Amino acid sequence: MYFKQITVEGMGCLSYIIGCPGAKVACVVDPKRDVQDYIDLARKNGMEITHIFETHIHADHVSGNQELKSRNGAKIYYMEGSPVTFPHEEVTEGQTMEFGYTRLQFIKTPGHTPHAMSILVTDTARSQDPWMVLTGDCMFVGDIGRPDLAGDELIEEQTLNLYNSLYSRLGTMPDNLEVFPAHGEGSLCGRGMSAKSSSTIGFEKKSNDLLKLSKDAFKQEMMQTFPSRPKSFSHIIHTNTHGVPLLDRCPIVRDLSPAQVKAQIEKGATVLEISCGRFLQKSSSRRSARESMQCCMMSEPRRNMKTAILNRPDRCR
Ligand SMILES: [Fe+2]
Predict the structure, then answer these.
(1) CATH assignment of 2-242, given 3.40.50.300, 3.30.70.20, 3.30.930.10, 3.60.15.10?
(2) Pair 312, 271: CB distance under 8 Å
(3) What is the pLDDT of residues 28-53, one digit of tens each?
(4) Average of per-residue pLDDT values in the chain
(5) Distance (Å) from CA 235 to ligand 1 centroid
(6) Would you say 134 and 118 are in contact if contact means Cβ atoms under 8 Å apart?
(7) Domain-by-domain residue ranges, the chain?
(8) Percent of the chain with pLDDT over 90
(9) For residue 183, how far is its CA from the centre of ligand 1 (angstroms)?
(10) What is the Cα 189 distance to its own chain's centre?
């Protein structure tokens, strides 16, 4: 089995590439938007990424699921009932999937979001017992997911869901099961995560006070103040629910050759040269002095100039 945790420093986002080099297949769980790491790792280990799993609709970062799908055709999976509106597949409670010697099993663990899931990971070459559980934003290392992000009107239901997920689902799993969450220190999806990025069910039950409470005490605890919900979260949830635009539809910085810059401008793109802030664009037949100057500047774009394509007529929506 191949298993690797990928970290986005500063944001506390943790994602995973899991697969079987023998069977040449892999999947990615909770991909970050820059997907090159997954593609490089898969290629290096002779695997093809065929599946993308999201443990829940993220509020704090834009998913890389569309980007990864566009690069290799992998299908995107959510737990059944998730309100995403773009083409995707659903997994059901208890369903298993095999990737060579790697077996995944999907478990409903709502509470942070209403349709969140955890994923049990088994290396069947070593044992038929699960080795790890990817807990999404339900159980963190030293913390638990916050139940308030789905909206104030759902907080009571989500608190109860979170309690059941933590105490009746994850909490009844074997102590030696390793815990790999979707977030670590720095994330606002919890209140105080550890800097360590993995743990075990047994260690968390023993050392996390939030996993030692009665249901009433847990409810009381969840009524305490959470870190303020950043304004960007609503926009990010909306984006992740309806499908993230591909990066080549966005004005991003690219290293373009002079020929590529000219070709883009000929198609009608406006190109911003980052180094000095000049706009390069196709001139009209009745040139103003400014347009003539731009035309002059575009006549010989410099090698390796830093550019941002502001609009690509062939790509922009
Ligand atoms: Fe989250």
Answers:
(1) 3.60.15.10
(2) no
(3) 999 999 999 999 999 999 999 999 99
(4) 86
(5) 14
(6) yes
(7) 2-242, 251-311
(8) 66
(9) 8
(10) 13
